[in-house]
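Open question from group meeting: does this chain pack into something compact, or does most of it stay loose? Before anyone orders reagents, we agreed to write out a predicted structure and look at it together. Recording both the input and the output here so the notebook holds the full record.
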Amino acid sequence: MLSRPTGPEGRLIVAIDTPTLARAEALAAQVGPFAGLLKLGLELFCAEGPPALGVLKARAPVFLDVKLHDIPNTVAGAVGSLLARRPDMLTIHAGGGPAMVAAARKAAEAAGPARPMILAVTVLTSMDEAALRATGVPDAAEKQVLRLARMAMESGADGLVCSPREVAAIRAGLGDAPGLVVPGIRPAGSAADDQSRTATPAEAVAAGADWIVVGRPITGAADPAGAARAIVASLAR
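Structure tokens returned:
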């Protein structure tokens, strides 16, 4: 299983969100030297399937962000099916409940010491309090994140995915135990796009993030490699 980074190098996860393998391969070649991991999300995975994982893994370790959410048996089967592709991180939804989280962890253990980290997604970074209320959650985002985070870690998750806004609260409530992967990262001056709860790379790491996930500010830049390099450099200041 992956070790957590201790310095700026290795903290950056670049989200390769594109529907074509050719574009993904080109981006991976550009940003791979500056990325601790490359994120393979639903857009590319649904377009190209598991072979996309091998293409990205040739450049850097892979964070497979497919957010599995189903009955425990089905999620366990999906995790087992993915092990042959050797993802380094794998996401599930904490909202699937304790039994589902435990089933994912047990299935991952079949890969032995090289198993992927099982990361439980708490509350999506696109959601704010109004969106939570619309889904029947009356609490503030931070309270819901902490509730799901505690349950997921007690059920066997290796770490959590949360917005930058909840990192400090998770560290205060759960300590150093969870590996924290933090999307919703926007360098100063970048557009928020569809993210509701954001922070800069340095702010997220200062709060306690282990890894930060950056997509469009890098992949949409005229010079993706330069944008990735600049973010890593900003973490060293």
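Observations to bring back to the group:
The beta strands are 12-15, 37-41, 62-68, 89-93, 117-121, 159-161, 179-182, 211-214.
Residues 12-235 form a domain with the TIM Barrel fold (CATH 3.20.20.70).
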